[in-house]
Design a protein that fits this description.
- The chain is an alpha+beta fold.
- It has eleven helices and 15 strands.
Length: 392
Protein backbone atom coordinates (compact mmCIF):
# COMPACT_ATOMS: atom_id res chain seq x y z
CA UNK A 1 0.00 0.00 0.00
CA UNK A 2 1.35 3.41 -0.99
CA UNK A 3 1.20 6.28 1.48
CA UNK A 4 -1.13 9.18 0.77
CA UNK A 5 0.38 12.43 2.05
CA UNK A 6 -2.35 14.27 3.95
CA UNK A 7 -2.33 18.05 4.47
CA UNK A 8 -2.66 20.04 7.69
CA UNK A 9 -1.20 17.37 9.97
CA UNK A 10 -3.95 14.90 9.10
CA UNK A 11 -3.53 11.15 8.82
CA UNK A 12 -5.85 8.45 7.47
CA UNK A 13 -7.67 8.06 10.79
CA UNK A 14 -8.32 11.79 11.21
CA UNK A 15 -9.33 12.14 7.57
CA UNK A 16 -11.96 9.41 7.92
CA UNK A 17 -13.25 10.89 11.18
CA UNK A 18 -13.37 14.52 10.11
CA UNK A 19 -13.71 14.68 6.30
CA UNK A 20 -14.89 11.37 4.80
CA UNK A 21 -18.48 11.86 3.59
CA UNK A 22 -18.55 15.18 5.47
CA UNK A 23 -16.58 17.95 3.75
CA UNK A 24 -14.14 18.58 0.89
CA UNK A 25 -10.38 18.60 1.30
CA UNK A 26 -7.68 19.96 -0.99
CA UNK A 27 -4.39 18.06 -1.26
CA UNK A 28 -1.26 19.62 -2.75
CA UNK A 29 1.01 16.99 -4.35
CA UNK A 30 -0.14 14.09 -2.13
CA UNK A 31 1.03 11.27 -4.44
CA UNK A 32 4.66 12.22 -4.92
CA UNK A 33 5.65 8.72 -6.09
CA UNK A 34 2.84 8.32 -8.67
CA UNK A 35 3.43 9.16 -12.32
CA UNK A 36 0.60 9.12 -14.87
CA UNK A 37 2.07 8.33 -18.26
CA UNK A 38 -1.29 8.26 -20.02
CA UNK A 39 -1.55 10.57 -23.04
CA UNK A 40 -4.64 11.98 -24.73
CA UNK A 41 -4.15 9.87 -27.90
CA UNK A 42 -3.97 6.67 -25.84
CA UNK A 43 -7.15 7.59 -23.98
CA UNK A 44 -8.90 8.31 -27.28
CA UNK A 45 -7.77 4.91 -28.54
CA UNK A 46 -9.33 3.24 -25.49
CA UNK A 47 -12.59 5.09 -26.21
CA UNK A 48 -12.67 3.36 -29.61
CA UNK A 49 -12.77 -0.11 -28.02
CA UNK A 50 -16.06 -1.99 -27.80
CA UNK A 51 -15.49 -3.31 -24.27
CA UNK A 52 -14.67 0.06 -22.68
CA UNK A 53 -17.26 2.61 -21.51
CA UNK A 54 -16.65 6.13 -22.76
CA UNK A 55 -18.42 9.44 -23.30
CA UNK A 56 -17.85 12.72 -25.11
CA UNK A 57 -19.46 15.78 -23.53
CA UNK A 58 -19.87 18.91 -25.65
CA UNK A 59 -20.94 22.06 -23.85
CA UNK A 60 -21.61 23.77 -27.20
CA UNK A 61 -21.68 22.83 -30.89
CA UNK A 62 -23.62 19.62 -30.19
CA UNK A 63 -27.21 18.69 -30.99
CA UNK A 64 -28.18 20.18 -27.61
CA UNK A 65 -26.33 22.11 -24.91
CA UNK A 66 -24.20 19.69 -22.87
CA UNK A 67 -24.69 16.88 -25.38
CA UNK A 68 -23.36 13.48 -24.27
CA UNK A 69 -22.18 11.07 -26.98
CA UNK A 70 -21.44 7.47 -26.03
CA UNK A 71 -18.68 5.21 -27.33
CA UNK A 72 -17.27 3.18 -28.82
CA UNK A 73 -16.00 5.92 -31.13
CA UNK A 74 -13.86 5.89 -34.24
CA UNK A 75 -11.06 8.25 -35.24
CA UNK A 76 -13.36 10.41 -37.39
CA UNK A 77 -15.46 11.24 -34.32
CA UNK A 78 -12.52 13.19 -32.89
CA UNK A 79 -11.51 14.99 -36.10
CA UNK A 80 -14.54 17.30 -36.24
CA UNK A 81 -14.57 18.46 -32.62
CA UNK A 82 -14.30 22.19 -31.77
CA UNK A 83 -11.19 23.74 -30.29
CA UNK A 84 -12.72 24.24 -26.83
CA UNK A 85 -15.44 23.20 -24.37
CA UNK A 86 -15.50 19.43 -24.77
CA UNK A 87 -14.38 16.50 -22.61
CA UNK A 88 -13.68 12.81 -23.21
CA UNK A 89 -14.35 10.49 -20.25
CA UNK A 90 -13.28 6.84 -20.08
CA UNK A 91 -14.43 4.51 -17.27
CA UNK A 92 -12.53 1.69 -15.56
CA UNK A 93 -9.15 2.68 -16.94
CA UNK A 94 -7.53 0.91 -13.98
CA UNK A 95 -8.88 -2.42 -15.30
CA UNK A 96 -6.94 -2.00 -18.54
CA UNK A 97 -3.75 -0.11 -17.66
CA UNK A 98 -1.65 -1.44 -14.76
CA UNK A 99 0.07 1.93 -14.31
CA UNK A 100 -3.30 3.56 -13.60
CA UNK A 101 -4.31 0.68 -11.29
CA UNK A 102 -1.35 1.67 -9.09
CA UNK A 103 -3.24 4.85 -8.23
CA UNK A 104 -5.72 2.75 -6.20
CA UNK A 105 -2.95 1.66 -3.84
CA UNK A 106 -2.98 5.10 -2.23
CA UNK A 107 -6.62 4.69 -1.13
CA UNK A 108 -6.57 1.27 0.50
CA UNK A 109 -7.13 2.73 3.95
CA UNK A 110 -10.73 2.65 2.69
CA UNK A 111 -12.23 -0.86 2.19
CA UNK A 112 -11.50 -2.33 -1.24
CA UNK A 113 -15.14 -3.29 -1.73
CA UNK A 114 -16.09 0.40 -1.62
CA UNK A 115 -13.77 1.26 -4.53
CA UNK A 116 -15.37 1.39 -7.96
CA UNK A 117 -12.93 2.54 -10.62
CA UNK A 118 -10.57 5.17 -11.94
CA UNK A 119 -12.29 7.27 -14.58
CA UNK A 120 -9.90 9.36 -16.67
CA UNK A 121 -11.02 12.50 -18.45
CA UNK A 122 -9.25 14.54 -21.10
CA UNK A 123 -10.49 18.08 -21.64
CA UNK A 124 -9.56 20.80 -24.07
CA UNK A 125 -9.52 24.43 -22.94
CA UNK A 126 -12.70 25.31 -20.99
CA UNK A 127 -13.85 21.70 -21.23
CA UNK A 128 -16.05 20.39 -18.42
CA UNK A 129 -19.09 18.25 -17.75
CA UNK A 130 -20.97 21.18 -16.24
CA UNK A 131 -22.02 22.08 -12.70
CA UNK A 132 -23.50 18.96 -11.11
CA UNK A 133 -23.56 16.68 -8.07
CA UNK A 134 -22.46 13.06 -7.63
CA UNK A 135 -24.00 10.56 -5.22
CA UNK A 136 -20.65 9.05 -4.24
CA UNK A 137 -17.25 10.02 -2.83
CA UNK A 138 -14.54 10.95 -5.31
CA UNK A 139 -10.86 11.91 -5.28
CA UNK A 140 -10.02 14.12 -8.27
CA UNK A 141 -6.32 13.79 -9.11
CA UNK A 142 -4.90 16.29 -11.57
CA UNK A 143 -2.55 14.25 -13.73
CA UNK A 144 -1.68 16.80 -16.43
CA UNK A 145 -2.52 20.42 -17.14
CA UNK A 146 -4.69 22.63 -14.95
CA UNK A 147 -8.33 22.52 -13.90
CA UNK A 148 -10.25 25.02 -11.81
CA UNK A 149 -12.73 23.47 -9.39
CA UNK A 150 -15.66 25.39 -7.95
CA UNK A 151 -17.97 23.97 -5.28
CA UNK A 152 -20.94 24.81 -3.12
CA UNK A 153 -22.43 22.73 -0.32
CA UNK A 154 -26.06 23.86 -0.23
CA UNK A 155 -28.60 21.03 -0.75
CA UNK A 156 -29.67 20.40 -4.34
CA UNK A 157 -32.97 18.76 -5.25
CA UNK A 158 -33.74 16.75 -8.40
CA UNK A 159 -36.12 19.40 -9.74
CA UNK A 160 -33.32 22.00 -9.87
CA UNK A 161 -31.54 20.42 -12.83
CA UNK A 162 -32.11 21.79 -16.32
CA UNK A 163 -34.77 19.54 -17.93
CA UNK A 164 -34.37 17.66 -21.24
CA UNK A 165 -30.57 17.53 -21.25
CA UNK A 166 -28.35 14.44 -21.48
CA UNK A 167 -26.67 15.36 -18.18
CA UNK A 168 -27.92 16.59 -14.77
CA UNK A 169 -26.76 20.21 -15.11
CA UNK A 170 -27.48 22.91 -12.54
CA UNK A 171 -28.78 26.13 -14.18
CA UNK A 172 -27.12 28.45 -11.66
CA UNK A 173 -23.93 27.92 -9.76
CA UNK A 174 -22.70 30.31 -7.08
CA UNK A 175 -19.37 29.02 -5.85
CA UNK A 176 -18.58 29.04 -2.14
CA UNK A 177 -14.98 27.90 -2.72
CA UNK A 178 -12.70 27.40 -5.71
CA UNK A 179 -9.20 26.07 -6.31
CA UNK A 180 -6.85 25.81 -9.27
CA UNK A 181 -5.38 22.30 -9.37
CA UNK A 182 -2.03 21.85 -11.06
CA UNK A 183 -0.30 18.54 -11.93
CA UNK A 184 -0.02 16.38 -8.80
CA UNK A 185 -2.77 18.16 -6.85
CA UNK A 186 -5.96 16.41 -5.73
CA UNK A 187 -9.41 17.35 -4.41
CA UNK A 188 -11.60 15.09 -2.27
CA UNK A 189 -15.37 15.63 -2.60
CA UNK A 190 -17.98 13.85 -0.45
CA UNK A 191 -21.36 12.88 -1.92
CA UNK A 192 -23.82 15.56 -3.01
CA UNK A 193 -21.41 18.49 -2.96
CA UNK A 194 -22.14 20.46 -6.13
CA UNK A 195 -19.00 20.98 -8.19
CA UNK A 196 -17.79 22.30 -11.51
CA UNK A 197 -14.35 21.57 -12.92
CA UNK A 198 -13.22 23.70 -15.87
CA UNK A 199 -10.01 23.01 -17.80
CA UNK A 200 -7.57 25.88 -18.26
CA UNK A 201 -5.84 24.65 -21.39
CA UNK A 202 -5.67 20.92 -22.12
CA UNK A 203 -5.72 18.67 -19.06
CA UNK A 204 -6.10 15.09 -17.83
CA UNK A 205 -7.87 14.28 -14.56
CA UNK A 206 -8.09 10.88 -12.83
CA UNK A 207 -11.24 10.40 -10.76
CA UNK A 208 -11.10 7.69 -8.10
CA UNK A 209 -14.77 6.87 -7.45
CA UNK A 210 -16.48 4.74 -4.82
CA UNK A 211 -19.53 2.51 -5.05
CA UNK A 212 -22.68 3.76 -3.34
CA UNK A 213 -25.67 1.53 -4.20
CA UNK A 214 -29.10 2.86 -3.34
CA UNK A 215 -31.23 1.19 -0.69
CA UNK A 216 -33.67 0.30 -3.48
CA UNK A 217 -30.90 -1.49 -5.42
CA UNK A 218 -29.75 -3.38 -2.34
CA UNK A 219 -33.27 -4.39 -1.27
CA UNK A 220 -34.18 -5.51 -4.80
CA UNK A 221 -31.00 -7.60 -5.10
CA UNK A 222 -31.48 -9.12 -1.64
CA UNK A 223 -35.07 -10.20 -2.29
CA UNK A 224 -34.22 -11.55 -5.74
CA UNK A 225 -31.44 -13.66 -4.22
CA UNK A 226 -33.67 -14.76 -1.35
CA UNK A 227 -36.50 -15.77 -3.68
CA UNK A 228 -34.10 -17.83 -5.77
CA UNK A 229 -32.26 -19.64 -3.03
CA UNK A 230 -33.50 -19.42 0.52
CA UNK A 231 -36.96 -17.93 0.89
CA UNK A 232 -39.03 -20.60 2.68
CA UNK A 233 -41.81 -22.23 0.69
CA UNK A 234 -44.21 -22.01 3.63
CA UNK A 235 -47.51 -20.19 3.27
CA UNK A 236 -49.11 -17.64 5.54
CA UNK A 237 -50.77 -19.14 8.60
CA UNK A 238 -53.18 -17.34 10.91
CA UNK A 239 -52.36 -16.53 14.50
CA UNK A 240 -55.00 -17.83 16.94
CA UNK A 241 -58.27 -16.32 15.71
CA UNK A 242 -61.41 -15.11 17.48
CA UNK A 243 -64.74 -14.22 15.88
CA UNK A 244 -64.67 -10.68 14.43
CA UNK A 245 -67.62 -8.31 14.61
CA UNK A 246 -66.19 -6.41 11.60
CA UNK A 247 -64.93 -9.08 9.18
CA UNK A 248 -63.44 -6.46 6.82
CA UNK A 249 -60.93 -5.28 9.43
CA UNK A 250 -57.26 -6.36 9.32
CA UNK A 251 -56.36 -6.83 12.95
CA UNK A 252 -52.87 -6.26 14.47
CA UNK A 253 -52.22 -9.99 15.20
CA UNK A 254 -52.47 -10.77 11.47
CA UNK A 255 -50.09 -7.95 10.58
CA UNK A 256 -47.71 -9.10 13.27
CA UNK A 257 -47.77 -12.65 11.90
CA UNK A 258 -46.76 -11.41 8.45
CA UNK A 259 -43.98 -9.24 9.91
CA UNK A 260 -42.70 -12.16 11.96
CA UNK A 261 -42.47 -14.36 8.85
CA UNK A 262 -40.54 -11.67 6.99
CA UNK A 263 -38.22 -10.96 9.91
CA UNK A 264 -37.46 -14.66 10.22
CA UNK A 265 -36.20 -14.63 6.63
CA UNK A 266 -34.04 -11.58 7.28
CA UNK A 267 -32.60 -13.11 10.46
CA UNK A 268 -30.66 -15.77 8.55
CA UNK A 269 -27.53 -13.89 9.62
CA UNK A 270 -24.81 -16.05 8.09
CA UNK A 271 -26.48 -16.24 4.72
CA UNK A 272 -27.19 -12.50 4.76
CA UNK A 273 -23.53 -11.82 5.50
CA UNK A 274 -22.57 -13.90 2.49
CA UNK A 275 -25.18 -12.20 0.32
CA UNK A 276 -23.73 -8.80 1.20
CA UNK A 277 -20.20 -9.92 0.31
CA UNK A 278 -21.39 -11.31 -3.02
CA UNK A 279 -23.35 -8.12 -3.74
CA UNK A 280 -20.56 -5.63 -3.07
CA UNK A 281 -18.02 -7.60 -5.12
CA UNK A 282 -20.20 -8.07 -8.18
CA UNK A 283 -18.50 -6.90 -11.36
CA UNK A 284 -20.10 -4.65 -13.93
CA UNK A 285 -21.78 -6.42 -16.81
CA UNK A 286 -18.96 -5.66 -19.29
CA UNK A 287 -16.26 -6.69 -16.78
CA UNK A 288 -17.30 -10.29 -16.22
CA UNK A 289 -14.77 -13.08 -15.72
CA UNK A 290 -15.53 -16.53 -17.11
CA UNK A 291 -14.24 -19.99 -16.05
CA UNK A 292 -11.41 -21.51 -18.02
CA UNK A 293 -12.27 -23.99 -20.74
CA UNK A 294 -9.32 -26.16 -19.66
CA UNK A 295 -9.43 -26.76 -15.91
CA UNK A 296 -6.36 -27.77 -13.89
CA UNK A 297 -6.28 -30.30 -11.10
CA UNK A 298 -4.86 -29.18 -7.76
CA UNK A 299 -1.59 -30.98 -8.52
CA UNK A 300 -1.30 -29.47 -12.01
CA UNK A 301 -1.96 -26.01 -10.59
CA UNK A 302 0.64 -26.49 -7.84
CA UNK A 303 3.28 -27.57 -10.36
CA UNK A 304 2.57 -24.68 -12.70
CA UNK A 305 2.57 -22.15 -9.86
CA UNK A 306 5.94 -23.47 -8.72
CA UNK A 307 7.33 -23.16 -12.26
CA UNK A 308 5.93 -19.67 -12.83
CA UNK A 309 6.85 -18.42 -9.32
CA UNK A 310 4.11 -15.75 -9.29
CA UNK A 311 0.42 -15.50 -10.08
CA UNK A 312 -1.55 -12.32 -10.75
CA UNK A 313 -5.04 -11.23 -9.83
CA UNK A 314 -7.19 -10.71 -12.93
CA UNK A 315 -7.58 -6.97 -13.49
CA UNK A 316 -11.40 -7.34 -13.39
CA UNK A 317 -11.45 -9.29 -10.10
CA UNK A 318 -13.03 -7.64 -7.05
CA UNK A 319 -12.08 -9.37 -3.79
CA UNK A 320 -13.17 -9.13 -0.16
CA UNK A 321 -13.48 -11.51 2.79
CA UNK A 322 -15.31 -11.81 6.10
CA UNK A 323 -14.64 -13.66 9.34
CA UNK A 324 -17.53 -15.84 10.51
CA UNK A 325 -16.16 -17.81 13.40
CA UNK A 326 -19.59 -18.55 14.83
CA UNK A 327 -20.20 -21.21 12.16
CA UNK A 328 -16.58 -22.30 11.78
CA UNK A 329 -15.96 -20.76 8.35
CA UNK A 330 -14.40 -17.66 6.84
CA UNK A 331 -15.61 -16.53 3.43
CA UNK A 332 -13.79 -15.14 0.41
CA UNK A 333 -15.88 -13.12 -2.06
CA UNK A 334 -14.82 -12.62 -5.66
CA UNK A 335 -17.00 -10.99 -8.33
CA UNK A 336 -20.27 -12.07 -6.75
CA UNK A 337 -19.14 -15.61 -5.88
CA UNK A 338 -18.15 -16.95 -2.48
CA UNK A 339 -15.65 -19.54 -1.29
CA UNK A 340 -15.44 -20.86 2.27
CA UNK A 341 -12.45 -21.80 4.41
CA UNK A 342 -12.14 -23.06 8.01
CA UNK A 343 -12.15 -20.11 10.40
CA UNK A 344 -8.60 -20.92 11.53
CA UNK A 345 -7.27 -19.73 8.16
CA UNK A 346 -5.28 -16.98 9.88
CA UNK A 347 -3.60 -14.55 7.50
CA UNK A 348 -4.36 -16.47 4.31
CA UNK A 349 -7.39 -14.41 3.24
CA UNK A 350 -5.84 -11.05 4.21
CA UNK A 351 -2.83 -11.94 2.05
CA UNK A 352 -4.84 -13.20 -0.94
CA UNK A 353 -7.13 -10.15 -0.96
CA UNK A 354 -4.41 -7.58 -0.29
CA UNK A 355 -1.80 -8.43 -2.93
CA UNK A 356 -2.45 -8.30 -6.66
CA UNK A 357 0.65 -10.43 -7.25
CA UNK A 358 1.09 -13.61 -5.16
CA UNK A 359 4.48 -15.31 -4.86
CA UNK A 360 4.80 -19.07 -4.65
CA UNK A 361 7.50 -18.90 -1.99
CA UNK A 362 5.41 -16.72 0.27
CA UNK A 363 2.41 -19.06 -0.02
CA UNK A 364 4.38 -22.31 0.00
CA UNK A 365 3.40 -23.43 3.51
CA UNK A 366 -0.28 -22.87 2.72
CA UNK A 367 0.05 -24.62 -0.64
CA UNK A 368 1.15 -27.77 1.18
CA UNK A 369 -2.27 -27.92 2.84
CA UNK A 370 -5.01 -29.29 0.56
CA UNK A 371 -7.73 -26.83 1.64
CA UNK A 372 -5.70 -23.77 0.60
CA UNK A 373 -4.27 -25.36 -2.53
CA UNK A 374 -7.78 -26.36 -3.59
CA UNK A 375 -9.12 -22.83 -3.07
CA UNK A 376 -6.34 -21.24 -5.12
CA UNK A 377 -6.84 -23.81 -7.86
CA UNK A 378 -10.57 -23.01 -7.91
CA UNK A 379 -9.80 -19.29 -8.16
CA UNK A 380 -7.54 -20.05 -11.10
CA UNK A 381 -10.04 -22.31 -12.85
CA UNK A 382 -12.77 -19.69 -12.32
CA UNK A 383 -10.52 -17.12 -14.00
CA UNK A 384 -9.95 -14.81 -11.03
CA UNK A 385 -6.18 -15.32 -10.87
CA UNK A 386 -3.90 -15.83 -13.87
CA UNK A 387 -0.35 -16.69 -14.79
CA UNK A 388 1.61 -14.15 -16.80
CA UNK A 389 1.43 -16.15 -20.01
CA UNK A 390 -2.34 -16.72 -19.73
CA UNK A 391 -4.73 -14.59 -21.74
CA UNK A 392 -7.34 -12.79 -19.63
Amino acid sequence: MQNLHFPNGLNAEKFLAEYWQRKPLLFRNPLAEFQCGLEADELAGMACEEAIESRLVLEKHGATPWEARYGPFDEDDFSDLPDSRWTLLVQDVDKHLPEIAKLLDYFRFIPDWRLDDVMVSYAVDQGSVGPHIDDYDVFLFQAKGKRRWKIHSRPVSEDEFIPDLDLRILPEFKAEQEWLLEPGDMLYLPPNVAHWGIAEGECITCSVGFRAPTLHEMATAWFEAALESRMPRQRYRDPPLKPQSAPGEILPPSLNEFKAMLEECIRHGQENDRWFGRFVTEAKEHLQIYPRSEQLTDKEFHNRFREQAVIHRHSYARMAFSRNEHDGYDTLFVNGQHYTLPSDSGDFLPVVTHYRVLHFGYLQEWLEQPVYLSLLCRLYNDGHIIFKDDTE
